[in-house]
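The passage that follows is intended for readers who have already worked through the single-chain material. We present the inputs for a multi-component assembly, then the predicted structure in tokenized form, and finally a short commentary. You are encouraged to pause after the input and sketch how you expect the pieces to fit together before reading on.
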Amino acid sequence: MDNLEKGEVKRLKRSTGAVILAHSYQPREIQEMADLVGDSLELSRFARESVAPLVILCGVRFMAETVKILSPGSVVRLVAPGADCSLAACMSGEDAGAWKREHPGAALVTYINSPVEAKAESWACCTSANAVGVVRAAPPGDVLFGPDRNLAEYAAAESGRRVIPWPGGCHAHSGADIRSLRRARAEWPDAAVLVHPETPPVFRREADAVLGTGGMIDYVAGSDRRRFIIGTEEGMVYRLSSLFPDRSFTAAGDISCRDMRNATPDMVLEALRGDDPGILIPEELAGAALKALERMTEL
Ligand code: CIZ
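Having made your guess, compare it with the prediction:
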């Protein structure tokens, strides 16, 4: 993006009152132009407090839907049209409803990486940052957890609750190859290995810590290690490197989300222009999903 276009972004932001939100998995050039970079929980908290008339969301569809539900007065535009999450696509609202009917009395906890229709069926939502706490706080009895099976198993192990997982997974995390992590560890034997709970169980067993992206930032901030091997989407390696320029980070293999990688600065400029009404969600559906999201933010 040249200086002229950068100036145009600034001018449009001023004239529209827009804020640019980016997930930590976004490409470097997008993170660099964002007003806030964070995980879904941070973006949700920001949205809940926000009075911005226009939100430019650099991430995938479920994140834009979540921001719209929490900030219904804002126009929320998803920067990369068609940026869907392969994990969210694993469990529809109909799937969630039918699953609940098969397990009467169980509480459904839905990972934030899910469509709004599935959230609307849920007792509560969670992110990777608070999945264990939300499962722990669920009403007595079985907990249905979807759509990510690896995160469900992790939350079950950490909370001690009986969790029934939905058989879904993130194409990038669940396809991660443990041999890449072992190679990185052989090259950097002094490094701390931080992995995301969406990775397969073998990653969790070989890691120093299992954390969402927000937890990874806190871990590095409180650690005296100099080098870190990061087992999550590759955008996080840039995020950590920019926050901690005196430390070194490397990826634990090729964990790359095609939908997170396709946003470009030109798309941000395009989203700032024009009169696209952005994400629209029927009121009743948004209201039902809001209850599950509010329970998550309260917990
Ligand atoms: O919570 C999120 O935003 C996701 C999808 C992952 C993470 O750990 O940040």
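Commentary: The pocket of (~{Z})-2-methylbut-2-enedioic acid is lined by residues 23-24, 39-41, 112-113, 127-128, 196, 212-213 (CB under 6 Å). The chain has three domains: 3-84+261-281, 88-169, 172-256. How closely did your sketch match?
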